[in-house]
Amino acid sequence: MKLIRLFSDLISIFFIPIKLIVPKKRVVILQTYSRKLYCENTRYLYEFLSEEGSVDAYWVTDHPKIKAYLKSKGWKYITTHNPIKMIWISLLARVVVDSGLGFFNILNLTGGKSVIKITTLHGSGPKATLSRSDDIMTAVRQILMINKFNYVNFTSNYSAYFIGKKTFFLPNDKIITLGYPRCDKYFDHEYVVSRYNEKSVAKSMNSSIGKESKIILYTPTWRPYKYDFPLNNMLDFSAYDFNQWLQSHNLFFFYTVHSNMTPENMPKDLDRMVFIDAALNPLFDINQLMLEVDILLNDYSTTSTDFSILNRPQLFYMPDYDFYDSEKCFVENYKEILPGREVASYDDLKSALVDASSAPESYVQEYQMATNELQRKYYDRGAGDSARRFSSFIQEIM
After folding, report:
1. How far apart are CA 101 and CA 144, in angstroms?
2. How many CB atoms within 10 Å of residue 190?
3. Is the pLDDT confidence value at 260 over 90?
4. Higher-confidence residue: 178 or 228?
5. Which own/partner pairs from 205-212 qualify as long-range (CB within 8 Å, at least 24 positions apart)?
6. Could you tell me which residues come within 8 angstroms of residue 169 by beta carbon, excluding any fewer than 6 positions away?
7. Neighbours of 275 (CB within 10 A)
8. DSSP 8-state symbol, 202
9. 116-119 and 214-218 as β-strands: parallel, antiparallel, unpaired?
């Protein structure tokens, strides 16, 4: 590994004078946290920029399925499988955009001041704080990484202040509040209804889903500690029994896990409990699936903020709330603005699912004030034009 790093550093030195000679063009490079996935805010911004044509937008990927998909759309990409093209486009790039804390920077070609770095960020909510651990340098590294960007995006003035300024110590000139491109379609009522009725994403993962079927999505978030599949800690819960119960109520239960860590003892081989494996679904994007979902079961994930825009029922199961708060911390008291019912036992879960699926309007109305407060604090850019605003901003700074 040290030899590879040394070789990379030597090549980087070789490109220093070349970077000064090659003029920057209207080239934007976008990526997400893995070159084997096609998702997040940067996906939606990339598609908007590619269709709009005001800049040359390139996606970074090494996955054959993603490359084939982008080719079918006539969109541009770069890959390590074609290193010469990747280096050339990197030399031309004026802007790089990421959805997390690290930006694309092969051979340090985009690390200089001549390239503008933007992060859209990938989640807005009360848990969007620094990771804590026994090593204070974990938090320090995160602060240093995010401050390497020229611009850091937030979805509200509240989150810009409490997360941007007070957590990441960002100066005013680095903060932008342009919303999330992945949420733009959530404000298009006709599109939302159409996607809900089609359920094309869910059906592609389970062909048994019918017109009257209802879908539950469970999105347990990452913990900064080793943990079991959270539902296994629920009083009286049995995955096999739950699967039978779901079948009797014509419900389907999809669940994801955070990319940073896979919990232990996940349910397997159950026809109504479907694990969404990103490694097998490189084109999967959770915001597309949420359009088809009836009920979100959550703990601390910021999917709650996105889903609140759809104004559909949410449930919360948080067996390790106090310990999570002590290890990760919240921006504020999370339980005070939950846009849905907290459940503690298997009977609670089944009862809440019946209420939320049989009378969704009245269930949502019960928690409307909390939903409104969540959006006011963590997503007040509700115009459905985030991608357009990003495009205008990028053209302005170019």
Report:
1. 9
2. 7
3. no
4. 178
5. 205/254, 205/274, 205/276, 205/281, 206/252, 206/254, 206/271, 206/274, 208/252, 208/271, 209/252, 210/250, 212/250
6. 143, 147
7. 17
8. H
9. unpaired
| pLDDT tops 60 at residue 1 | no
Handedness of CA 170, 176, 178, 182 (dihedral sign): negative
| % of the chain beyond a pLDDT of 90 | 81
pLDDT confidence of residue 134? 65
Name the nearest CA neighbour of 314 among 368, 266, 262, 263. 368
Sign, Cα dihedral of 387, 389, 392, 398 = negative
Instruction: Tell me the average pLDDT of the chain.
Output: 93
DSSP for 225-294?
A: S--B-GGGGSBT--HHHHHHHHHHTTEEEEE---TT-PPBS---S-TTEEE--TTT-TT--HHHHHTT-S
Q: How confident is the model at residue 227 (pLDDT cuts 50, 70, 90)?
A: confident
Three-state SS for 26?
Answer: coil
The C-alpha atoms of residue 261 and residue 225 are separated, in whole angstroms, by 9
Q: Which amino acid is at 83?
A: P
* pTM across the whole model: 0.94
Among residues 117, 64, 120, 74, the alpha carbon closest in space to that of 95 is found at 117
